[in-house]
Backbone:
């Protein structure tokens, strides 16, 4: 366990970092705090936890898997914190049974995971080769989940594009990828669709577009400012629609499943709720985030505000056409209505104010196109990732926004959770307990507001590779000791807390809920001691696995030599 003073130093450092990253703001005039709501979720509400292939599986080059853009990106020096890679991560590939037993411990109703495209189709092109061992791995995982009455919710694309497709065609920049993705999805429906009934085409395409092709912080690391993200998003939306139609026409009849997409969105709250410019800027923030993908899928075209702003800026930059591509009318009607449910990934909130960026050709970017500034309240808790402030009330607002904008679709929360820094080795994660308690409570309020939320996925089941942050940020309910080659898992206190929310289907009454935190943290100090003893355990394992056999072999050899020597002397 880290001493309290070290935790405080972490906090101060983080606060300084975060404050330097964002402008300051007078929060005292805008207190959004509200009271706790006791009550339960509708019967049948589905509780789950999530993961993704590259973040957890490891086995990056095993059993015929092809390279993904994340394998290549993380192997380049300087792209990921401390040059960490997902090569072995938590070895989830080899730990299906162990991990499903953790899910059982939590009594999860569903588990959300993703399929690695290059594990199934090494080059990404189905015609080249299909890897049977990859199919077997996912078959085993799905079967094992179902045997344990855990519903699989399967994502087809959680960022690990086959490297060959990036090299040959430019990845998501090239429309030809739509067909390759559709063939991959079709293969998944064919092989797994008899048992998988919830499909998510893409996870958080905003990140793929902006961080992969605009800022280059994520694989494939391209910095095509002002154009890369828009072109990527355009092809992703087309690919999503095509896959939905494939399922709808070829599989839905017999398999009776659902196909959706998982979109991420921070909430944007106007700095001054009486200032029309701030109100519009905050709405723009959400439209350039969630609306960018949700509006075409639910209404057939990009949000008007995106078309206006990017169009206007492009014209000021002397461009003949907008940097935001457009859909033909045929494409619009093909795309509209292609989500049976909407997945929402949500972690945090920003205050937003209007800010004009002069249009210059060299300064074109997704960020300046929005004409706004993001602010944070320094009082918001921020235990882990620099960008992740705990602002529960933003969640309720976002869910209500989705209800109002897209006709109250069926929603699954596909990601929600909070991290801690790697150095803060602490299984008594009271800040995570508080985060889950308050965010889940805001979701309950949203359901009372009439939002159609059907399930919730805690992010994430295990600590894992956190993209460009490597292993420096931990989102898991279970701690993974990455320094031990067996990658043992230890429950954090939040496991016990989340388990109680699940078994009570919410927050039944004050007296009961108040006990939960105390009971959840009762066992964590002994788990902390186990964890602290871990280096010793792995040392002893090394002794038994390497030193003991080596010494034994040497003894046998020496005895044999000695025996031969004795025999010779007798002769
Ligand atoms: C969203 C991504 O989908 C997920 O992979 C990641 O772990 C979380 N954000 C936290 O950064």
Residues:
């Amino acid at each position: 366990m880290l001493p309290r003073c070290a935790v405080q130093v972490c906090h101060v450092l983080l606060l300084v970092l975060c404050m330097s990253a964002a402008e300051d703001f007078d929060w005292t005039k805008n207190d959004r705090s509200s009271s706790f709501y006791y009550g339960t979720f509708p019967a049948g509400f589905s509780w789950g936890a999530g993961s993704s292939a590259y973040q957890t599986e490891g086995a990056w080059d095993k059993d015929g898997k092809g390279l993904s853009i994340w394998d290549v990106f993380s192997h380049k020096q300087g792209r990921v914190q401390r040059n960490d890679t997902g090569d072995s991560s938590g070895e989830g590939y080899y730990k299906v049974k162990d991990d499903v037993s953790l899910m059982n411990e939590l009594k999860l109703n569903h588990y959300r995971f993703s399929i690695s495209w290059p594990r199934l189709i090494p080059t990404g092109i189905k015609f080249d080769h299909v890897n049977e061992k990859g199919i077997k791995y996912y078959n085993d995982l799905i079967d094992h989940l179902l045997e344990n009455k855990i519903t699989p919710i399967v994502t087809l694309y959680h960022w690990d594009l086959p490297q060959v497709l990036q090299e040959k065609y430019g990845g998501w920049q090239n429309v030809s990828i739509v067909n390759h993705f559709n063939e991959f999805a079709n293969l998944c429906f064919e092989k797994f669709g008899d048992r998988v009934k919830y499909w998510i085409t893409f996870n958080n395409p905003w990140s793929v577009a902006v961080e992969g092709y605009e800022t280059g912080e994520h694989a494939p690391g391209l910095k095509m400012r002002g154009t890369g993200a828009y072109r990527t998003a355009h092809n992703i939306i087309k690919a999503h629609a095509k896959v939905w139609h494939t399922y709808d026409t070829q599989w839905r009849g017999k398999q009776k499943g659902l196909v959706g997409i998982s979109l991420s969105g921070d909430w944007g709250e106007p700095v001054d709720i009486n200032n029309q410019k701030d109100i519009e800027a905050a709405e723009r923030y959400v439209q350039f985030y969630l609306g960018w993908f949700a509006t075409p899928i639910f209404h057939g075209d990009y949000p008007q505000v995106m078309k206006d702003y990017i169009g206007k800026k492009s014209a000021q930059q002397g461009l003949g056409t907008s940097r935001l591509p457009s859909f033909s009318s045929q494409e619009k009607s093909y795309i509209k209505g292609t989500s049976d449910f909407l997945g929402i990934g949500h972690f945090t909130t920003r205050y937003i104010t209007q800010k004009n960026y002069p249009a210059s050709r060299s300064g074109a970017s997704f960020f300046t196109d929005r004409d706004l500034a993001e602010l944070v309240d320094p009082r918001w808790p921020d235990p882990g990732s620099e960008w992740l402030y705990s602002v529960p009330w933003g969640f309720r607002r976002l869910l209500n926004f989705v209800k109002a904008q897209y006709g109250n679709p069926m929603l699954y929360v596909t990601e929600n959770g909070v991290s801690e820094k790697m150095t803060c080795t602490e299984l008594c994660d009271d800040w995570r307990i508080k985060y889950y308690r308050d965010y889940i409570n805001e979701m309950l309020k949203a359901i009372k507001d009439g939002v159609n939320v059907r399930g919730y996925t805690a992010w994430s089941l295990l600590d894992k590779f956190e993209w460009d942050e490597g292993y420096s940020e931990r989102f898991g309910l279970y701690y993974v000791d990455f320094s031990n080659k067996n990658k043992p898992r230890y429950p954090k206190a939040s496991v016990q807390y989340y388990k109680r929310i699940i078994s009570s289907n919410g927050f039944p009454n004050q007296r009961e809920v108040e006990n939960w935190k105390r009971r959840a943290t009762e066992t964590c100090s002994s788990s902390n001691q186990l964890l602290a003893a871990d280096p010793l355990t792995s040392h002893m394992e090394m002794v038994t696995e390497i030193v003991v056999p080596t010494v034994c072999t040497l003894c046998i050899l020496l005895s044999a030599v000695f025996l031969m020597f004795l025999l010779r002397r007798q002769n």
Remarks:
- Residues 1-31 have pLDDT under 50 and may be disordered.
